[in-house]
Amino acid sequence: MRWRLQNLPSFLLLELALFWCAPAAAKEVIHIGSGEWPPYISEDAPHFGPTSQIVTEAFALVDIDVEYHFHPWNRSFVLCLQGNLDATIAWEKTAEREPNFVFSEMPIITERTVFFYSKNNAQSLDEIWSPSKEPKLRIGGILGYNYGDKLDEAERKGLFAVRRSDSEMTSFRQLIKGHIDLFPSDLVVGLEILRKHFDAPERHQIRYLPEPLRIAKLYLIFSKKTPRHDWLKAQFDKGMQQLHDSGRLSNLQIDPNLSPARISAH
């Protein structure tokens, strides 16, 4: 005997109707502050850049959606610090930040900072760090950027004359024009800026020293002001481990040795 809906008791029909009409449970959403740092991270890039894609895919593996909020970097940091955002992407672990944030177990980027210079004004590492170097080298820098303890200490001792600007593009222009002698930048970021914003004759003038000024691991950091921070960190760590174990993580990460930019290391 075949059952039809009209053969069911009315209370069962009501329960079935409620079941079919009930909305699916809403997925968890994390709100992440970000900024522009191409090619790693960009609002205009597919998936907001490969580093953002790593974070998105790690959370997707644990059934969490990601919403990115793009601001100037300092603004994203402050919004996260205040608890207005759950997390912010690509920050170094420091003692000053640890009271206010928890850090992902795995880094999402390994930043490799090198010195760029003009081929018409070549510098060796021995010359750069020589305390007797005269005249003092003019080092470019970006306002608000941290280039590590070694460069900070040299600046405090007066080894360099540091000239800070508002962008990498400005500093590379100064380098090409001979207004500065060296410009430290993440290798991948520097090569991308030269590729996108400078023509071939300009790029041909630029070289970089392959020995890194610093190597820094950058993390996804979670605000302790938000009640879910420990849970979100644990879920992200779980997703990152799955990405790592599957080999997907290494496929998404940028290898600076494979950069297509035609800039020489000397």
Automatic annotation (TrEMBL):
It comes from the Bacteria. Pfam families: SBP_bac_3 (PF00497). Residues 1-26 form the signal peptide. Keywords: Signal. The keyword Signal applies. Residues 36-253 form the Solute-binding protein family 3/N-terminal domain. Belongs to the bacterial solute-binding protein 3 family. This is ABC-type amino acid transport/signal transduction systems, periplasmic component/domain. It comes from Hahella chejuensis (strain KCTC 2396).
